[in-house]
Amino acid sequence: MIGSTASTPVTWIDWALLGRVFVDALGAGLALALIVSLGMIGFSKVRTGGTLAIRSLGTVVSLVALAGVAVALVVGFHFVTTK
Amino acid sequence: VVVHNTFLLISVVAIALSFDFTNGFHDTANAVAPTIATRALPPRIAVGLASVLNLVGAFLSIKVAATIASSLVTTDLVTLQVVFAGLLGAILWNVVTWYFAIPSSSSHALIGGVIGAMLVSAGGHAVLWKSLVAKVIIPAGLSPLVAASVAALALVLSRAITRGVDGETSKVGFRVGQIGSSGLLALAHGTNDAQKTMGVITLALVANGSLHETGSAVSVPHWVIWSCGLAIAAGTFIGGWRIIRTMGQGFTDLQPVQGFSAQIASSSVLLTAAHFGLPLSTTHAATGSIVGVGVAGERHTMRWSLVIDVAIAWIVTLPAAALVGALTYWLVHSLGTMAGVLVTGIIAAGVCVVIMRKAREDAIDASNVNDEWGWHAEQIEQATTKETVAA
């Protein structure tokens, strides 16, 4: 209800824009799924890993994943505030 | 054209805040349904968190204090009566769909209401039909498909990677992930949807001569931001339990990995689309994601009849809200502004009260929102049969 754009040409479907949205959303979604899933593998090794080396590796993977999630949330937050 | 009418201005502000409230409780499900269904958070905590984040979201940005309806109608012809009628149409459609537990788009209801009122007020030439199709109808059809695809692929990836992880760790991990993704969705909803109402109220203030433009910009008053934020947060806190139940339990039996995949898909699609300036409905993306993980997961648990019902409701939303908006405008115009606003307001309030009372007969709240799907209907059927036999 703000800003009439009667003179602006309108295309029925902006396939290029839709494609970018799909590819970027897919990238973001899969990246998050990857980060959290890897973090879970790391966490499961922390809990059940046999040797100290495996448990340490699990800890590192979990922490990296946690940092990844934090970065993803910050990026998401940025999108929310700048759109 | 500035027209001073304090009564109409107050009515529009009140009705806009009421719409914001219904928008909150109607859309609570978008952010929290999978979180509640997979027991990542207790229902009250999930809704409370979403409510706080909706309030925070309302303060994050007022850069886009416009609506999704921008460029859909010739704005020079929009009057306070049109806005009032459009908002009333949207409110009634939100309450009706809430009663039937159908997740439909509040934004589309608002657009439908305004278009209906506009058609009666100024005629078909005042509606930018091509924009309506290109910016509302086509994205409404495509966004659930995009969200469903992203959600399905995220589910396949998550399952493939965590195949070797023990069940309990996997459940806990994905539940924790869900808390973050649902929080982000609630934040995005607060900033996006609260701004629609801020835009409507600000426009009403300008149209009434109560607020003046500084240069080409209009600054949104603090009380408008506060009241819109509080209205949407209060609505969210009430919790649209009926719709939460449909989205969480109705479409499919969600597992934590599915809930997580659905929520990151809807967050990703909505935030990416917003980044590129493509307005999408939160409801459509969230519903599409849940259906996507249902199809990619245990397909036999999908309840397609419900999916079809919801799809039909989406198609009906625009014309139904338009019809109420048109009728409201006609009444306001015919009876005179003050009498018309009072009469339509009283009728709408009466309809809402009747629907709310009717909803109490099969109340859904935090205590039974996670009951097995179908169980509730069976209970009601049994109770009705007993009553009939007794009579």
Q: Would you kindly provide a written description of the structure presented here, covering whatever features stand out?
A:
The complex is a heterodimer of chains A (83) and B (391). In chain A, helix 1 packs antiparallel against helix 2 (52-82). Chain A is mainly α. Chain A has helices at 15-48, 52-82. Chain B is 75% helix and 0% strand. Chain B is built from 13 helices and no strands. Chain B has helices spanning 6-37, 43-60, 80-99, 106-122, 129-161, 167-207, 222-238, 241-250, 256-275, 282-296, 304-335, 337-360, 375-390. The model of chain B has no long low-confidence stretch (mean pLDDT 87).
Topology:
The complex is a heterodimer of chains A (83) and B (391).
Chain A: H1 15-48, H2 52-82
Helix pairs in contact in A: 1-2
Chain B: H1 6-37, H2 43-60, H3 80-99, H4 106-122, H5 129-161, H6 167-207, H7 222-238, H8 241-250, H9 256-275, H10 282-296, H11 304-335, H12 337-360, H13 375-390
Helix pairs in contact in B: 1-2, 1-3, 1-6, 1-7, 1-8, 1-9, 1-10, 2-6, 2-7, 3-4, 3-11, 3-12, 4-11, 5-9, 5-10, 6-7, 6-9, 9-10, 11-12
Question: Which regions of chain A contain 5 or more consecutive residues with pLDDT less than 50?
Answer: 1-7
Tell me the number of helical segments of chain B per DSSP (H or I, 4 or more residues long).
Answer: 13
Percentage of residues in DSSP E strands of chain B: under 5%
- Measured distance between first and last alpha carbons of chain A: 18 Å
How would you sum up the global shape of chain A? elongated
Radius of gyration of chain A using CA atoms only: 21 Å
Outline of chain B, from the CA principal axes? Answer: globular
Determine the strand fraction of chain A and express it as a percent band. under 5%
Distance between the termini of chain B: 63 Å
